[in-house]
Amino acid sequence: METAAGPALPWVPVSVGDSRLLAKAWFGDTEYKVLLSDLTNVWEEEMSRDSIQSRAQELNKRLRAPVQAFFAHLRSVAVPCLSGQSDDQSTSSYFSLEPHSSHLTVKVKSELAGVPFYWEFRCTPAPVEVVSRQLVRPLLAVTLVLQRQVGELATLLARKDAEIQDYKENGAILSRGRLQTEPFEEETYQKNFITQTLPQMGVLQDCLEFNSGLQELYVAVSTARNSEKRKRSAEHDSASTDNFSFVPERTTPDQDHSSLPKGSFIHDMRPGSNQNDLQQPLGEAQEADTEQTVPLIPAAASANRLPLRPKKKKVVGLFR
Length: 320
What we know:
By secondary structure, the protein is an alpha+beta fold.
């Protein structure tokens, strides 16, 4: 779960009542996000300040307190349970699960200032996109990282065997026979692991164990993926800016066309201008510009301004 408050959070195994779940929870000042999974379903709930206040008043009609007090107490009770920090529930708080078809409710009962305090995490099925982003893709990335790590360890073992063999060829003798090992052969090791070790591990059944090592690797992979995503997004935005940010202007404050002789030509760089527009004399261009709408100027300000130069009348020929 990526939040503005910190890095990605890991999935942790938790005990809620008599059930074991994987949980991923984030608690802010007056908001929270919760993900729960039993490896068959994934549920989520996201609550803001107003929603928390409304539910707290709904479930605790006898209790009157600011939303900060409600939430501070809820956080102190729920975080130890949903973060896997402690499997032993306090005698002053009680958690229970109530499944409702596709929904899941986690009920909390505790005491606040000597008065019973109730809360319900009313979780709904998480969309497929959320499951993929929070669970599937990070775990696939973790498997790729572990696979590469195993490959590098196999290479290191082969180099160690070559080093030991060099010592032996130069007269080195092992002083303790129990440290004697056979040269490492990766293909043989993989075959024995799959046929002998794997059946004894029991990982083919549903397993909610997500140890600290995997949690740390999950956080590292998720953080790296988010950083790469932000980097690509920034590069894309930069490329878009390079392609579409140029907006040509007709004039700038540094360009004063009044110093040009009458009859000089100016270039109109506005989209849609044609070649005839590019050959428009400066005087006529200034006359056309005077037809643009400008903001009204207060009378006091207009009195202090210099009088506008009268428009020069065009010469009328003999034949109209």
